[in-house]
Amino acid sequence: MGGDDLDDFVLDGYVSASGDEIEDDVDGSQVDDAVSGPSTQSTTEDQRTEEKKRKRKAKLKERKAKRRKLIESTESENTKSITESSPHELGDYLASLQAKTFKELSPLELEDMRIPETSIADTTAWTHPRTLDNLTEFIIKVVPNLHTRLSQKSKKAGSPTLLFVTGAALRVADVTRILKDKKLRGDKGGEVAKLFAKHFKLSEHVSYLKRTKVGAAVGTPGRIGKLLCETDALTISALSHIILDTTYRDAKQRNLLDIPETRDEVFKSVLGAPGVLQAIKAGKIQVVLY
């Protein structure tokens, strides 16, 4: 149940990008076989190859960062997001998605799982774009209670006050950096856990959470769900808010809840994790759509 605990996850392995081929200038000059000999030539070629790989990765990283920024700005400027709706409308929206996830349930059973509008944050007063650059101010002005809790000292390991659920590992890294802002955490706030499967085994996250006091946990629904449902490392004893990152869209213009796999993980293993839905219904956990 949401309660009163809260300290930043710095499993700081960065996320490698993969994908497009990028041209690189070949630097350095040819080494004469007759002078350098085959061994020296082989070493030089290896060095050139490593340098080319390093440049390629750097360019890929830069390109992907620019692409993410463009997608985000396009979404916020050109599309009226569902997140701007009233709690009542958001309740209907989430209920329609639950019906897609739980196709086998009857209307009565689905109604029993419905997230009450009283447990959905009213963010209609926020009129600025819902971008990463504005996330800090959004929390301070629209969800002041969350801001207060993020600045408080955590009392128990693995018990954040905030779960920020997003659909991609790179996005997790970006959001984590924002939530580390001193304007949110002050001098006493807990650590920010970075939770995604790419590069990190489940056991590594379990070990980290059991020894670390976190104030917020940012992650993909798959990894957060596993930690909530299959381990005791991530608890909801201090949980007061769950932010669903529904404004951000991937390269195919899909948000967290548009993609069937991530939508199902959100409703089955995050919002549907033991005790979470009950705490939401009891008003102990508030759902925020950003």
UniProtKB/TrEMBL annotation:
Q: Where is the composition biased (Acidic residues)?
A: 1-10
Q: Could you list the residue ranges forming a coiled coil in this record? A: none
Q: Which Pfam families match?
A: CMS1
Q: Where is the composition biased (Basic residues)?
A: 53-69
User: What InterPro entries does the database record attribute to this sequence?
Assistant: Cms1
Q: Where is this region: Disordered?
A: 1-87
Name recorded for this polypeptide: Protein cms1
Q: Which organism is it from?
A: Marasmiellus scandens
Read off the lineage from the record.
Answer: Eukaryota, Fungi, Dikarya, Basidiomycota, Agaricomycotina
Q: Which gene encodes it?
A: cms1
